Amino acid sequence: MVRFFVSAEDLEKEDVSLTGENAQHAKVLRLKPGEMVLLCDGEGREAVCKVESTDEWLLRAMERRESQSEAAVKVSVYMALPKADKLEHVIQKATELGAYEIVTFPSVRCVSRPDEKSLKKKLERWEKIAASAAEQSGRGRIPKVLVLGSFSEALTRAAQADKALMFYEHEAALTLKMALSSGGYSTVSLLTGPEGGLEEAEVTQAREVGLQVCTLGRRILRCETAPLCALSAVMYDAGEF
Amino acid sequence: MVRFFVSAEDLEKEDVSLTGENAQHAKVLRLKPGEMVLLCDGEGREAVCKVESTDEWLLRAMERRESQSEAAVKVSVYMALPKADKLEHVIQKATELGAYEIVTFPSVRCVSRPDEKSLKKKLERWEKIAASAAEQSGRGRIPKVLVLGSFSEALTRAAQADKALMFYEHEAALTLKMALSSGGYSTVSLLTGPEGGLEEAEVTQAREVGLQVCTLGRRILRCETAPLCALSAVMYDAGEF
Question: Which domains does chain B possess?
Answer without folding.
Answer: 2-66 (2.40.240.20), 74-237 (3.40.1280.10)
